[in-house]
Design a protein that fits this description.
The complex is a heterodimer of chains A (about 110) and B (about 110). Chain A is mostly beta strands. Helix content of chain A is about 0%, strand content about 55%. With about 110 residues, chain B is mainly β. In chain B, the strands form two sheets. In chain B, strands 2, 4, 5, 6, 9, 10 and 11 form a seven-stranded mixed beta sheet that branches. In chain B, strands 1-3-8-7 form a four-stranded antiparallel beta sheet, with no helix packed on it. Chain B starts with a strand and ends with a strand. The chains are: A mainly beta (about 110), B mainly beta (about 110). The interface between A and B is medium-sized, with 27 and 29 residues.
């Protein structure tokens, strides 16, 4: 079956460290992958999009990698802060037609001061 | 700029009742969609629309109807609510081009008793 997997266990790290979250997928060949942030009681907010021909994308303290051979994306937050604590979701357009954005279950990140 | 607006924020329904979740966007986006989010299940696509007058089913469409009479509005109807429809519902919109950012509403918490 087609799946998008994110670590369902919360990731706890110390302030200032780099947080690394993983998104693995099977049976897809997506043209791009997106990462979203979701705070409790709020809707997801877009963070980054990376295309299949891009190995790495950066935005301020955020970095995303996309390995289409491993079928994996890594999401890094450097110099993490307590304000980065949230759930992070990855999403793929499973049919590359723009109609069926499919989400992973998300990983909750807790950054401790 | 309001973005994507959902109403109501919270609703309790009795089994068998019907209701409509409203969604409006003021960004002139062609693409709109409805997701439900359940613990451990991530966001799952219910229905989507690529423009006024055009709708299609997503991953979990059963028990829900949609219509798209205008570009701005995309209501989600529950014809006969069931306890399995207890969930958080998110409406989202995006410019028509695939790969663009999706903008989510703040969510509607629905409990069916």
């Amino acid at each position: 079956s087609q799946k998008i997997e994110q670590n369902s266990e919360a990731l706890n790290i110390q302030e200032g460290k780099t947080a690394t979250l993983t998104c693995n997928y099977t049976n897809y060949s997506p043209a791009y992958l997106q990462w979203y942030r979701q705070d409790p009681g709020r809707g997801p907010v877009f963070l980054l999009l990376i295309r299949e021909n891009e190995k790495e994308k950066r935005k301020e303290r955020l970095k995303v990698t996309f390995d289409t051979t491993l079928k994996q994306s890594l999401f890094h937050i450097t110099a993490s802060q307590p304000a980065d604590s949230a759930t992070y979701l990855c999403a793929l357009d499973i049919n590359n037609a723009g109609n069926m954005l499919t989400f992973g279950g998300g990983t909750r990140l807790m950054v401790k001061p | 700029n309001a973005g994507v607006t959902q109403t109501p924020k919270f609703q309790v329904l009795k089994t068998g009742q019907s209701m409509t979740l409203q969604c409006a966007q003021d960004m002139n986006h062609e693409y709109m969609s409805w997701y439900r989010q359940d613990p451990g299940m991530g966001l799952r696509l219910i229905h989507y629309s690529v423009g006024a007058g055009i709708t299609d089913q997503g991953e979990v469409p059963n028990g829900y109807n949609v219509s798209r009479s205008t570009t701005e509005d995309f209501p989600l109807r529950l014809l006969s609510a069931a306890p399995s429809q207890t969930s958080v519902y998110f409406c989202a919109s995006r410019p028509g081009i695939s790969g663009n950012t999706i903008y989510f509403g703040e969510g509607s918490w629905l409990t069916v008793v």
